[in-house]
Structure formats: C-alpha cells, structure tokens
Write a structure and sequence with these properties.
The structure holds 2 protein chains of 2 kinds.
Chain A: H1 4-19, H2 38-52, H3 69-80
Chain B: E1 22-25, H1 31-41, H2 47-62, E2 74-77, E3 83-96, E4 99-111, H3 120-129, E5 135-141, H4 143-151, E6 155-156, E7 163-167, H5 170-181, H6 185-190, H7 192-211, E8 220-223, H8 226-236, E9 242-244, H9 248-260, E10 266-273, E11 279-287, E12 292-300, H10 305-318, E13 323-327, H11 335-338, E14 343-344, E15 350-354, H12 358-365
Parallel strand pairs in B: 4-5, 12-13
Antiparallel strand pairs in B: 1-2, 2-3, 3-4, 3-9, 5-15, 6-15, 7-13, 7-14, 8-10, 10-11, 11-12
The chains are: A mainly alpha, B alpha+beta.
C-alpha cells in the first residue's frame, strides 16, 4: 500500500502535471482561491479514481475533502485503507 | 409536518444570511438575478429572444402545474449573496410499467462567466441529483453537462441522443447552416436568390415524382389540440415501460409553453389520416418557412411510419422549409435508413439520466422509454 507521503507526492504530481495547478502549500485552498472550476474538479475526480484505483461515490463528494492537497491526500488514504472486519 | 424545500436535498442547508457560497432552492425574488444571468450568458442574443427566454423561464418557475416544493429549481449564491448559477428543475410525472414515477427534467444549467472558477456547476448538478425524485434527466445537454453528470453517477443515453436532419431545399439548407456557423453571413445572404432558383428547379422534380406516387390524396391531416393528443400519447405509449403521464390540462400547458418559443417558428400539432379516414399518426413540429422545421414529436400506427414521415416532409416543403430535423427515437430506427435519411449526433448534444431504479435505467438504455422532445427541453434553449 502507498504511504501517506507517496500518496501526497502522487496527488501533487496529478494536480501539477494533469490538471495544471501549481500548488503553493499543502493547505492552500484550491477551491476558494479559484484554482479549479467544475470541469477541472471533475477531471481531478476521474484522475484520482484512475491513479489510485478507487471509486468516489456521489455521497462521498463533500467538497470540503477536496479543498487542499493535504485534504485530497487524506481522502485517498482513507479510501485505500483496508476494511477492518467487525469485532 | 411540512418540510422546507432545501431539506429534501443532500446538501448543507444554509441560513438566509449566508457567509459563504452555496446552493439553495429557488425563490420568487431570485427571478431578476436569473434573468440578469441569462443576459450575461447570451450577450449577443437579441433583446426579444431574451424576453422570450425570460417569459418561458418565469412561466416554468412560477406557474408550472406540476410544481412540487420538494423538487425546486436551484440557484448558486456567491458569498456576497449574488446569484452566480442556476439550474432549472421541472417535474414531469411519469410511470415505470404500472408504477408512478417522480421524474424531473433539468434545464438551463447556467454559471456566471465571471464565477466559473467556482464549483457552482458541479455543486448545482450534485444538489439536483441528490434530490428525492426517482428519475432525473436532461435533454439536449452539452458535453460539459455530460461530464458533470457522469462524474456524479449519471449516464448518457446514446439511443436517445441521435438526431436526424433532412434537407428539402438543398441549397437553401446549406446556406441556412453556413450562415449559422460562418463569418461570411453577408456573402451567403447575397447568394440566396441563386439558391432559391436552384431549389425551385429541384422542387419541380421532387414534386413531379411525389404527385405520381402514393401520397397523392391518400393521406390528409387535421390540426389537433391537447385533448386528442393526451389520448393518443396515452394509447401509443402503453407498450413502453417508461412513459409520461399527462392530463389534458398539463399537456395543454406544456404545448402552450412550447408555442411561445418563436425562434423555431409556429408550433403545429396535426393528426394524419389515411384511406377510409383511418388514423395513421401525428406530429408536433414548428412551421418554419425559409428555415429548418424542428419536430418535437412524430408517432405513427405500426406499419405507417414511412407514410407519416413522408407526409410531414411534404407538408414542411409546402410551407417553405429548407429542411426538417428531429430526434431519431428508437421506434423509428428502421424507418429512417429505409427512407434514405442520414442521422447523426450533432454538436455532442446528450440525453442524460440518473436514477437508482434499475427498471428506469433499463428502459432508457434499451430504447423502451416514450421520451420525445416534448418531454425534453430543446424548445427551452
């Protein structure tokens, strides 16, 4: 499984090379500061799904998770966590 | 207990005095802001065109007979309380097999060009698709809308995204289309008289061929109204798994609204009869001399499809249209190639659907839905 740091690097690479955003800081608000419009956001979701082999359902699509590179990393990390068996 | 409209949406319900941007249900006082947005998005539209759009949107928002507080149109409000996005939502009662379906069509997804770096577009679509309706659909959606929908679990429906166009006056038809897409509008206008002469020559040959054929007096049409159409739609949609449910009053309202869109011409509703005055079919279209007649709905009794279609073409030709266009619905797939029509998917315009009900999605995917342009939004655009 990818480590947090590796996931963060992949997220930054995805944002920089595929989306075309130079992320100043891990906590820079990409939405509030106008780095992404709706279509870039959709493109980012699709790339996240492809890059990390995850599925993002509509009810998981809380924009708060995707505001910063750090937030996106945390979201991906959570998606990649193996499901723990009950008990 | 009556729930406020916003509570039906899986979105953060914000107080009226908001501190940040967000989606909320449309309120009557939003109308001027939406009209202002319309003007910004279509800056080159003549004022009269904008007036008609405003009139139609107002009617849809304020006087819709299917109005349902649980299914509101949505606005995106900026942090300063300015409306920077809008998504029209119109309920359309339907049935899947024998069960009623709460369906809604979305129309006019608009985002202020100055606010496109916001997430207004996807926020509006997400809020809409999270609503309590059984089926959300969009007709004539752009590629941008398609991407937004698909990212949120919606599907594009290729079977209901095919369109046909048939030139009646080839030169006039070509000029008509080039004028819409070309920078040489004046030059093309100057060539119109020569084009009309060429088309007149073609017309003579066409008419001579048709007059000798099966259409000479065998078929005739009569103007009709909502009452008869409601009965016909009910009867002809019986076999479809998914179909609209109209009353005379609701269909009449919808048709009157479609008639207000003057940009396509005059709305005509005609029933066609054949030998022994037997019903052959019907069509609803815009009479458009000098332009392309857009067809909203064309249906026929089994086996008479070609005759109904040819009758429509002849009618449009007599009225002076340069061509006829419509959506190629699945029940017409075999007729069009037989009648030598080309069909295509123009400008990536899509039918989009979203539903948790598998039967509904199966009806769309399998071409088993009675969804025509009357149910759609083409005439709203």
């Amino acid at each position: 499984m990818k480590t947090d740091d590796r996931i963060y690097q992949d997220v930054i690479e995805l944002l920089t090379e595929d989306i075309g955003i130079e992320v100043p800081e891990p906590d820079t608000d990409l939405l509030e500061n106008g780095y992404m419009d709706s279509l870039l956001f959709v493109k980012m979701l699709s790339l996240l799904e492809d890059t990390f082999s995850i599925h993002i359902a509509m009810d998981e699509l809380d924009f708060e998770h995707f505001k910063t590179a750090a937030g996106i990393t945390a979201f991906v990390e959570q998606k990649l966590e193996p499901v723990k068996p009950d008990g | 207990m009556t729930m406020p409209p916003d509570s039906n949406y899986n979105i953060k319900v914000r107080p009226v005095k908001r501190t940040g941007p967000g989606v909320r249900a449309f309120r009557v006082e939003d109308l001027p802001g939406i009209v202002h947005l319309l003007g910004k998005i279509f800056p080159r539209s003549p004022e009269a065109t904008l007036d008609i759009k405003e009139d139609i949107i107002s009617e849809l928002l304020l006087n819709n007979p299917w109005h349902d507080e649980r299914l509101p149109s949505l606005v995106y409000e900026s942090g300063e309380g300015k409306i920077t996005g809008f998504l029209g939502v119109a309920p359309r009662p339907m049935r899947i097999n024998d069960r009623p379906v709460t369906a809604t069509i979305s129309y006019n997804l608009m985002v202020d060009p100055e606010s496109r770096s916001s997430l207004a577009g996807i926020s509006l679509v997400k809020a809409y698709l999270s609503g309590p309706q059984d089926l959300s659909f969009a007709d004539s959606a752009t590629d941008t809308s398609r991407k937004l929908w698909e990212s949120l679990g919606g599907i594009s429906v290729p079977l209901y995204s095919l369109y046909w166009k048939h030139p009646l006056r080839p030169v006039g038809f070509a000029i008509h289309h080039l004028q819409k897409r070309s920078r040489f509008g004046l030059l093309l206008r100057a060539s119109e008289p020569a084009g009309r002469f060429t088309d007149w020559m073609v017309d003579r040959f066409w008419k001579a061929g048709r007059d000798a054929g099966e259409f000479n007096g065998n078929y005739w049409s009569q103007e009709t109204e909502a009452e008869e159409l409601t009965a016909l739609i009910g009867r002809f949609s019986e076999k479809a798994s998914l179909a609209p449910v109209y009353t005379t009053e609701t269909l009449s309202w919808l048709l009157n609204l479609a008639a207000r869109t003057k940009r396509f011409g005059e709305l005509k509703k005609e029933v066609i009869y054949g030998k022994n005055n037997k019903l052959a079919g019907w069509f609803i279209y815009y009479k458009n001399p000098g332009g392309v007649s857009e067809v909203l709905q064309i249906k026929s009794v089994p086996g008479k499809e070609k005759q109904v279609l040819m009758f429509l073409l002849q009618k449009a030709r007599e009225q002076g249209a340069v061509g006829v266009a419509g959506r190629l619905e699945p029940d017409w797939f075999t007729v069009f190639p037989d009648a030598a029509f080309g069909f295509y998917m123009p400008g990536r315009v899509w039918m989009l659907a979203h539903s948790a009900n598998r039967d509904i999605l199966r009806a769309f995917k399998g071409g088993d839905a009675f969804i025509t342009r009357i149910e759609g939004d083409m005439w709203l655009l």
